[in-house]
Fold this protein.
Amino acid sequence: MSYSSFSNPLVLLAAAVLISGATFTACSPTEDYDPSHTDTREQEADYQQESRLDSRAADAVAAASRVHYFEANTMYGQQLAEALRDSIQAIPVATADPQGVPTISMMTPVMIGQDVVMLAIAETQTRQNILDTGLATAAAYLYQPAETPSQQYRGARVVLGLIDDEQELQSLTDGLGDVPENALFLRILRIIPLG
């Protein structure tokens, strides 16, 4: 998705409407995604029971569809890391406070390796939610011209977990140069197909 897409108020409005009405994705951040499992109601119930966040929590990566996913268009590993590093200028990041009240922010990700995202976040509610819950969700979409809508978008929906171990943080920041004081480091815990 180009930067110009994010400067278009209609794109931002559509993204906000899609995101604000969603509920947490039907996947636990500690389990592998199984694309053959289609009983999303059962998954949602399991996830809500396991999650530290309640059912009012909003999720930027929740699909508009609760059933149809585009597994073939999902980026993983190096392909996703390169897209976030080179092609995607901003991503929606959603969090919820411990009571389940959601927030959404547009942020510029900085990839470190294949599975760590650095986000420089000011003293906002989004930052506090990440510090309180240790979780965030994000959506990375790339548009490409294609004949059918299902082929037009590539990317991934991801669940991110806060890295707070001091030794791991030191290892990550060694050799990075100037790291913003407000930087948070999050590991990609789950990759979920677009939907």
